Every structure is written in C-alpha cells, then in structure tokens.
Amino acid sequence: MGAMTAIEKIIKRMRANPSDVRFSDLVKVCTAFFGPPRNTGGSHTVFKTPWHGDPRINLQRAAGKAKAYQVKQVMEAIDKLGTL
C-alpha cells in the first residue's frame, strides 16, 4: 500500500476521534468529495451531495473545531458514496 494522501489521513483521524477535528480539515475533506461549497455565507458552509432526499451537508464552525455530529454526518455521506 502506498503513502496515504493528506485527505486520507484527515479521514482516519475523523473516524478515530470525531470530536477533535479542525473545521478547516472537515471543509478540505468535503471539498475533495463533494466539490466546492455552494454557500459559505454567514456561519454555515454548505456542500451539495449527489443523491435525492436531503442532498446537502451543512457545517458550522465551533471555536475552530467541527461539531462532532457533523463530522459523523460527513463520514456517513462518504461511506454512502462508496469511495472509501
């Protein structure tokens, strides 16, 4: 197995400890999987996902960190994509 990419390292840390993820790292991961955010205004950063139903991931910064429940939602969305 080759060297892990920066995104893979962040995802590994996210899975190990979802309550200790930097917001900027979560945005990097979402951008890698879902493209640039469609909305960065105000306190929300919103990413569009490729499925029907509730096709978005809505992130909020909490003192420089990502909220743990939002980290878990991102992990579920990545798993749903079936790419990792």
Secondary structure layout plus pairing:
Blueprint: H1 6-16, H2 23-34, E1 44-48, E2 56-62, E3 65-66, H3 68-81
Helix pairs in contact: 1-2
Nearest-angstrom radius of gyration? 12 Å
Largest sheet: 3 strands, antiparallel
**Structural class by sheet pairing and helices:** alpha+beta
Beta strands, count: 3
Provide the low-confidence segments as ranges: none
Fraction of residues in helices? 40-55%
Strand order of the largest sheet: 1-2-3
Mean pLDDT: 88
Note the beta-strand portion.
15-25%
Q: What's the order of the H and E elements?
A: HHEEEH
Number of helices: 3
- Kindly report how far apart the N and C termini lie: 14 Å
Shape: globular
Q: Could you characterize what this model shows?
A:
It is a single chain. With 84 residues, the protein is α+β, with helices and mostly antiparallel strands. 44% of the residues lie in helices and 17% in strands. The protein has helices spanning 6-16, 23-34, 68-81, and strands at 44-48, 56-62, 65-66. It has a 3-stranded antiparallel β-sheet with strand order 1-2-3. A hairpin with a 2-residue loop joins strand 2 and strand 3 (65-66). Helix 1 (6-16) packs across helix 2. The chain is globular and about 30 Å long. The two termini are 14 Å apart.
